[in-house]
Specification:
Blueprint lengths: L7 E2 L3 E3 L26 E2 L10 E9 L2 E11 L2 E4 L5 E2 L4 E2 L5 E5 L8 E10 L15 E2 L9 E5 L17 E2 L7 E6 L9 E6 L1 E3 L6 E4 L3 E2 L5 E6 L5 E11 L2 E3 L2 E4 L1 E6 H11 L3
Parallel strand pairs: 1-11
Antiparallel strand pairs: 1-2, 2-20, 3-15, 4-5, 4-9, 5-6, 6-12, 7-8, 9-10, 10-12, 13-16, 14-15, 14-19, 16-17, 17-23, 18-22, 19-20, 20-23, 21-22
Amino acid sequence: MHDRKRILVALALALAAPGAGAEERRDAPGPRAAAPAGDRRVPLEPTAWPFTAIGRVNVVQGPSHRSHCTGTLVGPRHVLTAAHCFFDGRLNAWVKPHQVHFVAGQARDLNAGSAEAVDLRLAPGIDLRAESRPGRDAIGPGMVGRDWAVVTLKDPLALKPVPWRVLPGADLPGSTPGAVVALAGYAADRPYLPVIHRGCSARIDAPSAGLLLDLCESMSGESGAPVLLLDAEGGAALVGIHTAVTQADRVGTAYRSASGIGVAAAAFAPTLSEMIRP
């Protein structure tokens, strides 16, 4: 069972929340659009890189209060994901590292490796406390670009990490001929097998510097999912992470959208370079 947490950004953007589950939360309605015509996400067997390095970030807040997000191994012991995954609204506080566990390349009951967390490094200045938000289950626009975190694992995983790439102002894939944009994550409708929307698009530094807009299908559970730039030679780079959906439509206890917003790599690249040394 997985608790679903939907947070509204300035009452206009819904964070791509952890997986749906046991404790349904009633939140203020955000903008609603017709469900996307057809689902462009397809199930993915994560047997090859870079998908072996993408996994579930499991968070246990209590005996019947669990959630998951999507994270990417960016170093042998470091996982990049969305910061809001680690905020426990019931306690109005951040969870502790021992409550977090990363499972890479999970495919049903199989995986490519797993490890417990020993540290959570949040983006500087992020504040999700109730008293700092403009409304219940809402955060201000100034927090959107700070919605990232780096998990340090207890043990290194013998997997190839995904590199990050800073592309200021890029309109992808158009500004990178031959490349393909993809969003892959563990959505609420397939929590133990990743789905991928391959062939979508993204704009870096939009609507403002340090942010990312994507036209990729996503669903609750894909908070922190990597926005990938794939090339014809099999290369891949993470250009940002997906954290929120726009024009969200409710599907059961989850939310689905064909567009979203997130954090561009320029926002977290200096921290990753500091933490992950050759």
